[in-house]
Design goal:
The chain is mainly beta. It has 2 domains: 421 residues, Porin (Beta Barrel), CATH 2.40.160.60; 68 residues, no CATH class. It contains 7 helices and 23 strands. The strands form 2 sheets. Strands 2-3-4-8-9-10-11-16-17-19-20-21-22-23 form a 14-stranded antiparallel barrel. A two-stranded antiparallel sheet has the order 6-7.
C-alpha cells in the first residue's frame, strides 16, 4: 500500500525540533549560475560588473553598466547520481527547467563634467541561487536492518506510551506523542505498531527495554529519494560611479526557500528467527522559508586595464516553517499466517516556525581587461558555515544543534576563474570553479570541482548568450542518522544549460 506524496487525510498539530545540519546547508550554499555570461565565466565577475548576476555578487557592478537594460535567462538543469551501496551500483537522473534569472537596470548619467559623480544606477535582479530538484536511487544487500532505526528510539520509553488505550486510534496516539514526546517517540510508535520489535516484559506498562523481531543476517534494501524546489534571491540595487575609477553599490535582498522531499525505504529478508520479512517506510518533508540580507561592494580601476573588487554579504536571516508525514508497512509471519500491517497516522506534523541565520560572506575579486580583445577574471570568497545558527538559542534542542554545527561544519573557501575572448561582436567564454567541503570530515562530503563554457553575440539593440556549466562532487550518505547508519557512496554530476537575452535602451 503506497500513499501519494501529501495526498492524505490531515490532522494538523504543532510540535518542534525536526531541523538538522542538512537544512542549514540547503539554505547556506549557492551555485555558480545566473545569466549565461555569468555562468560561462564560472561566476568570476566580482570585479567586472556590467551583468545582473554579477551585480547580485558585488552590488557595485551595476554602476559599470553603460546603458539601461533588461535581461532574461532560462535554464535546463540536470543531475546525474551514481550510488554504490555494498558493491551494487545504481544510476539515477533528474532534468528540470526554469526561468532562473530576470533583471533590469536604469542608468542615470550626470553630464556635469566638473562633478565627481559620473552616474547613478537603480536596478533589480531575480536569481535562482540553488536548484533543489534531485532524484536518487540506492539498492544493495546490507548488514543492518531498518528495524534498528526504530528500536534505537524506543529504548528507554515506557511501553505504555507505545500502546493504544481504549477508544484511541493510531492517529490519536501519534499526535499525542508528537505534541508531548517528540519525533523519536513517534518513530518508536510506528515500529512497535508494525510489530518490528516487542517489549522484553510485555505485561509491564513501565517496561523500557525492547527486542527486535527481525533476525540477524542480510537485508535487501532499496532506498528512493525525490526532491523538488529552489532557493531564490530578489535584489534591489543602488550604485554610483565616482570619478572614472571608483564604483560603489548596495543591495537589499529578500530570499525564498521552497522545498519538497520524499524518501521511501523497502527492505526484505528471509533470516532465521525473523517474524518480520518486509518493511516499507516513507517520510515526506515540506519546507517554506523567507529571508533578508544586504550587501555592500566596491570596484576600483587600479590602472586602465586592472580592476579590483571587494564585497561583503551580511548574514541572511530566514524564517522557516516545516511539515512532515510518515507511514510504515510491514509483512509479518506469525503462527503460520502471513499478514501485512499498515501503520498510517494520517497526520501532518506542523512544526513551530524557527529562525535560521546563515553566515556572512566576503568576496575579493580581480580582473584584467585586454582592451577590446578580452579579459580574465578571478574571485575568492569565504563563508564560515560553522557559524550557522538556529534560534531561539535558549531552546535546548537548538542549543545542541548549534553545537553540532559548530563541531561538524567549517569555513568554506570558493575560487572562481573565468576568461573571455572577443572576435568583433562574438564573445567566447570559459571558466573553472572550486569549492571546499563544508564538513570538517571530508569523507561526508568532498570538494566540488567544475568548469564552464559559453558564447555570446552582440546584435546591437539586444544580446544573445548561451552557457554550459558542469560540476562534480562525491559524498557518503547515511540512510538514517540512527540505527541504520550504513552509507552509500554517491558520485554526483550537476549540469546547467543557460540561455540569456538582453535588451539595451
Amino acid at each position: 500500500m503506497k500513499f501519494p506524496l501529501f495526498i492524505i487525510t490531515c490532522l494538523l498539530f504543532t510540535l518542534s525540533n525536526a531541523q538538522n545540519t542538512t537544512d542549514a546547508l540547503r539554505a547556506g550554499l549557492d551555485e555558480n549560475t545566473g545569466t549565461a555570461r555569468f555562468t560561462a565565466l564560472s561566476g568570476a565577475m566580482g570585479a567586472l560588473g556590467g551583468d545582473f548576476s554579477a551585480t547580485a555578487k558585488n552590488p557595485a557592478g551595476s554602476a559599470v553598466f553603460l546603458n539601461s537594460g533588461l535581461t532574461f535567462s532560462t535554464s535546463l538543469f540536470d543531475v546525474e547520481n551514481n550510488a554504490n551501496y555494498f558493491g551494487n551500483s545504481e544510476n539515477s537522473s533528474t532534468v528540470s527547467s526554469a526561468i532562473n534569472q530576470m533583471g533590469g537596470v536604469f542608468v542615470i548619467n550626470n553630464y556635469k563634467e566638473d562633478s565627481a559623480y559620473k552616474k547613478f544606477t537603480i536596478g533589480f535582479n531575480y536569481d535562482i541561487t540553488k536548484n533543489l530538484d534531485n532524484e536518487l536511487y540506492i539498492a544493495g544487500t546490507g548488514n543492518t536492518s531498518i528495524g534498528e532505526f526504530f528500536i534505537a528510539q524506543a529504548q528507554g520509553l515506557p511501553l505504555s506510551l507505545l500502546q493504544l488505550q481504549n477508544n484511541e486510534s493510531i492517529s490519536d496516539l501519534y499526535r499525542y506523542l508528537g505534541e508531548n514526546e517528540g519525533t523519536a517517540a513517534q518513530n518508536a510508535f510506528l515500529g512497535y505498531q508494525g510489530y518490528l520489535f516487542d517489549a522484553v516484559d510485555p505485561n509491564n506498562p513501565s517496561n523500557t527495554s525492547y527486542i527486535s523481531n527481525i533476525g540477524d543476517g542480510s537485508f535487501k534494501q532499496q532506498y528512493a529519494y525525490l526532491s523538488e524546489g529552489y532557493n531564490s534571491k530578489f535584489t534591489l540595487n543602488m550604485a554610483a560611479q565616482v570619478t572614472n575609477d571608483w564604483f560603489f553599490g548596495i543591495n537589499l535582498n529578500t530570499h525564498t526557500i521552497q522545498f519538497r522531499q520524499s524518501s521511501y525505504l523497502l527492505e526484505n529478508n528471509n533470516n532465521a528467527g525473523s517474524t518480520i520479512t518486509r518493511v516499507g517506510f516513507e517520510n515526506n518533508l515540506s519546507v517554506n522559508g523567507a529571508g533578508v540580507s544586504a550587501q555592500i561592494g566596491a570596484i576600483t580601476k587600479v590602472v586602465n586595464n586592472l580592476r579590483l573588487g571587494l564585497s561583503l554579504d551580511t548574514p541572511t536571516w530566514f524564517q522557516i516553517s516545516e511539515e512532515t508525514t510518515q507511514y510504515l508497512e510491514s509483512r509479518r509471519v506469525f503462527e503460520g499466517r502471513t499478514t501485512t500491517e499498515y501503520v498510517v497516522p494520517n497526520v501532518v506534523n506542523v512544526y513551530e516556525d524557527y529562525t535560521l541565520r546563515t553566515p556572512a560572506k566576503v568576496t575579493a575579486s580581480a580582473a584584467y581587461i585586454f582592451g577590446l580583445d578580452g579579459l580574465i577574471s578571478f574571485d575568492y570568497s569565504y563563508k564560515d558555515l560553522g557559524a550557522t545558527r538556529y534560534s531561539p538559542s535558549d531552546d535546548s534542542y537548538f542549543r545542541e544543534l548549534n553545537n553540532t554545527i559548530k563541531n561538524t561544519l567549517k569555513g568554506v573557501s570558493k575560487i572562481n576563474l573565468g576568461g573571455e575572448y572577443r572576435l568583433n561582436e562574438l564573445s567566447l567564454r570559459g571558466g573553472i570553479h572550486y569549492e571546499e567541503s563544508p564538513y570538517q570530515n571530508t569523507e561526508i562530503m568532498g570538494e566540488l570541482f567544475g568548469f564552464s563554457l559559453g558564447a555570446g553575440y552582440n546584435f546591437g539593440s539586444f544580446t544573445g548568450d548561451i552557457a554550459y556549466s558542469r560540476s562534480e562532487q562525491q559524498r557518503n550518505q547515511q540512510l538514517y542518522s540512527i540505527g541504520l547508519t550504513n552509507t552509500a557512496k554517491i558520485d554526483s554530476v550537476y549540469s546547467n544549460f543557460i540561455l540569456s537575452l538582453g535588451f539595451n535602451f
